[in-house]
Specification:
Elements: H1 12-39, H2 41-48, H3 54-84
């Protein structure tokens, strides 16, 4: 019988891995939001009529959404990696 080992998710290396996933998601969200603003005239038009803070709120919403999604995906990846080893 194997001894049950603790999850690496709570260790310092696990937290660094989670932060890395969150930062990757934030970078992807920022790139996606900027690409969407620059390539889609309808979005650019809506943001230009939305006031001075509309583009910032739009970008931060996408950045936060992507970062949360990447962090949750990172949790799944770390837990699966621990199961296999």
């Amino acid at each position: 019988m194997r001894a049950k080992k603790s999850s690496n998710l709570i260790s310092p290396t696990g937290l660094i891995k989670l932060m890395t996933h969150a930062m990757m998601g934030a970078a992807l969200g920022l790139a996606f939001s900027l690409a969407l603003i620059l390539t889609n005239p309808a979005v650019a038009n809506l943001l230009s009529h939305g006031g001075s803070q509309a583009a910032i709120v739009f970008a931060l919403t996408l950045v936060t959404t992507f970062a949360i999604g990447a962090t949750l995906t990172g949790i799944v990846f770390i837990l699966e990696e621990n199961k296999q080893s």
